[in-house]
Amino acid sequence: MKFRTHVEPPEPMRGLEIPSHVVAELGEGKRARVVITINGHTWRSRVAIMRGRYLLGLSNANRNAAGVVTGDEVEVEVELDPDPPVVVEPADFARALDDEPAARAAYDRLSHSQKRKHVHAIESAKKPETRVRRIGTALASLQDE
């Protein structure tokens, strides 16, 4: 679906207002996962609701890549994102999960955001011993579930 809108200023949120009829036509609820294209630049996001308006976030990186600035009127193409969100497990964490079937089963039941939280904690470790400790902490918390 295509629609025209303006690139909004950074307050309260730099973004693009998406008409409510477009959200309804997407048919996946008010916070649908979508693929957005402006000027040939495409990215994935989710419809946001702020102050009763439907918005698509527009980061500085995406704004620059699409060649738009605040105040521009743009044509936006939006479609449902056909791919479910995927969290890529680091190899060492994946091996540890596979070695503990109960932890693997618990991890596989987690929401996307909870999986991302575990992976981020592990990947943000600066020292190898911290990474190992965080993997152990993740496994322990998963086995308790």
TrEMBL record:
- Give the domain of life: Bacteria
Q: Sorted alphabetically, which InterPro entries does this protein's record hold?
A: AF2212/PG0164-like_sf (IPR037079), DUF1905 (IPR015018)
UniProt protein name: DUF1905 domain-containing protein
Recorded source organism is Jiangella asiatica
Q: What is the lineage of its organism?
A: Bacteria, Bacillati, Actinomycetota, Actinomycetes, Jiangellales
